[in-house]
Amino acid sequence: MNQNTIDLLLTQPVPESIDAELVAAYQVHRLYQHDHPQQLLAEVGPRIRGVVTGGAKGLSNALMDQLPALEIIAISGIGTDAVDLRHAASRGIQVTTTPGVLTADVADLAMGLIISTLRRLGEGERLVRDGLWGTVNLGLARKVSGIELGIVGLGAVGKAIAKRAAAFDMRIAYNGRHEQPGSGYRYEADLVALARSVDVLVLAASADGGQVLVTREVLEALGPDGYLVNVARGKLVDEDALVEALREGRIAGAGLDVFVDEPYVPPALRDLNQVSLQPHRGSATLQTRLEMGAMVLHNLKACFAGEVPPNRV
Ligand code: 8YV
């Protein structure tokens, strides 16, 4: 079959070379380039057989339902929380992800946010850039090496964070659905108790269950000397409670790569100095995005060849 007859919908950009490979094999339609997406959907929606999207963006049921010929949702990412898997299954639509290749990047960013937040790198940089060195006293930071680190979700990313944290002499505890005997880290079944016992709580859990893990109570337990770092999903946190806790000094600071309603970031968070912010950059390195793109291409190819895609969820 001539693959060029297959119509694909891209909800967000992919690296140039991956885009070129998609264009060589498929009819590519770019939803993100359209000011009037409904116009594009009215025109090509009935022909679309594949969607390429990101983990955070996913695909709404409303959009899925405008694509009657859809066979595959190829996620460039690991999170499936923004796709209704049951709805997709009921339509016989396959969903694929790109596991493994982004683990190191996300763990690296978690360490970056821990260091940036505790050592106040953003504030220091702003002070230097603003020409205020020697005029304004930044105050002392929080030592990173040797802290007690609580990891929420000891999956691939959580384990990669633990491995890196060990090199910083951090003592590691974790919370998750199950204890993982043999991990070598302290398990704490109660998230409030974990928050109470650590200096930094880092979120690396999946949001598939739709649950808010970091509640007011968890933030209270983290306390005025505790920090929250999130490289998983914004919706795992009660964002309003987080803003309040930060404003009132009931936690010490936060390092955030993800937010409830991206790309919206509550203005209060942008105003707070003790917060490090990133625009969802966990897997955003060229090397990793190329590997993710290659997996997306394999998954699409297998699906349209009538085979089981290698990374079907
Ligand atoms: C990116 C992610 O947002 O893997 C995920 O679930 O959230 C990130 O890697 C994204 O998927 C990039 O397309």
From TrEMBL:
<comment type="similarity">
    <text>Belongs to the D-isomer specific 2-hydroxyacid dehydrogenase family.</text>
</comment>
<dbReference type="InterPro" id="IPR006139">
    <property type="entry name" value="D-isomer_2_OHA_DH_cat_dom"/>
</dbReference>
<protein>
    <submittedName>
        <fullName>2-hydroxyacid dehydrogenase</fullName>
    </submittedName>
</protein>
<feature type="domain" description="D-isomer specific 2-hydroxyacid dehydrogenase catalytic">
    <location>
        <begin position="19"/>
        <end position="313"/>
    </location>
</feature>
<keyword id="KW-0560">Oxidoreductase</keyword>
<dbReference type="Pfam" id="PF00389">
    <property type="entry name" value="2-Hacid_dh"/>
</dbReference>
<dbReference type="InterPro" id="IPR006140">
    <property type="entry name" value="D-isomer_DH_NAD-bd"/>
</dbReference>
<feature type="domain" description="D-isomer specific 2-hydroxyacid dehydrogenase NAD-binding">
    <location>
        <begin position="111"/>
        <end position="282"/>
    </location>
</feature>
<dbReference type="InterPro" id="IPR050223">
    <property type="entry name" value="D-isomer_2-hydroxyacid_DH"/>
</dbReference>
<keyword id="KW-0520">NAD</keyword>
<dbReference type="Pfam" id="PF02826">
    <property type="entry name" value="2-Hacid_dh_C"/>
</dbReference>
